[in-house]
């Protein structure tokens, strides 16, 4: 699955004639592992929500396999491209009910073995499936939401700070699972992800490319090692230094 972003622009909702971001041009190719980096409020989440057709945009075109998003049924698009939010939304009911949501929505059989494998991989293997999802901790909900998204068998995952509430052990488990996931295929089609993170160690570990947003633009789009060794822009240098100094 190949996605192309052709000059996507989004205006600020509160200021006429001003842009949240402008003319974002990029592509997501099979097997891409992209870390989307940038300061707070750049519109990274908004961009991912746009790419999963959860939000409109003002200018430009998004294409999947050469067809514009306007030619796709949103449900068909979202079956291939799944956005995983930072704040998980649980359906009221049990863990089992939440896991079965996907098959209910798509009218297919519930793939229990797959669900158990993913739950195990995110260290929720011992969870009681009869427990109310609302009673899980924030980090547990975050992992359950990821498993639910994986059950959709997407080809492109758009991950929005999905380990922000996790302890280091669970965070590593999620990273390992997603690295395995992206190396496998969905019905013969290669997978890819775009992963928003503020954790530079994580970006290094999970990505082979970086998209860096600043000043309302996609300022850098480069191979991960090159981005960290010698960022091309002053903005990226300041951004990396700022995070590193914040950690000391
Ligand atoms: N049209 C718009 N759509 C969405 N957000 C907008 C818009 N116009 C202005 N904003 C503001 O821009 C910011 C965009 O937030 P968004 O979550 O997309 O950024 P982000 O880069 O993901 O930030 P963070 O790293 O803090 O999560 C918010 O402060 C929001 O209020």
Automatic annotation (TrEMBL):
Name of one Pfam family that matches: ABC_tran
Any one Gene Ontology molecular-function term assigned to this protein's record: ATP binding
Database matches in Gene3D superfamilies: P-loop containing nucleotide triphosphate hydrolases
PROSITE patterns: ABC_TRANSPORTER_1, ABC_TRANSPORTER_2
ABC transporter domain segment(s): 3-240
Superkingdom of source: Bacteria
UniProt entry keywords in alphabetical sequence: ATP-binding, Nucleotide-binding, Transport
Protein name: Putative ABC transport system ATP-binding protein
Record organism: Paenibacillus catalpae
């Amino acid at each position: 699955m190949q996605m192309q972003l052709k000059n996507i622009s989004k205006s600020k909702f509160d200021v006429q004639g001003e842009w949240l971001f402008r003319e974002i041009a990029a592509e997501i190719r099979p097997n891409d592992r992209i870390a989307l980096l940038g300061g707070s409020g750049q519109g990274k989440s908004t961009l991912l929500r746009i790419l999963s057709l959860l939000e409109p945009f003002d200018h430009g075109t998004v294409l999947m396999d050469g067809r514009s998003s306007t030619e796709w049924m949103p449900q068909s698009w979202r079956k291939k491209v799944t956005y995983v939010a930072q704040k998980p939304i649980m359906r009221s009911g049990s863990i089992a009910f939440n896991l079965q949501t996907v098959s209910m929505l798509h009218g297919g059989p519930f793939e229990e073995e797959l669900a158990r494998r993913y739950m195990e991989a995110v260290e929720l293997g011992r969870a009681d499936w009869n427990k109310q999802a609302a009673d899980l901790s924030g980090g547990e909900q975050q992992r359950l939401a990821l498993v639910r998204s994986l059950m959709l068998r997407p080809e492109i995952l758009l991950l929005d700070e999905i380990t922000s509430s996790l302890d280091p052990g669970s965070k590593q488990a999620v990273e390992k699972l997603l690295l395995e996931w992206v190396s496998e295929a969905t019905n013969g089609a290669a997978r890819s992800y775009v992963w928003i993170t503020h954790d530079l160690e994580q970006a290094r570990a999970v990505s082979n490319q970086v998209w860096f947003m600043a000043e309302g633009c996609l300022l850098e789009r480069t191979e991960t090692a090159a981005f960290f060794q010698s960022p091309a822009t002053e903005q990226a240098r300041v951004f990396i230094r700022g995070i590193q100094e914040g950690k000391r």
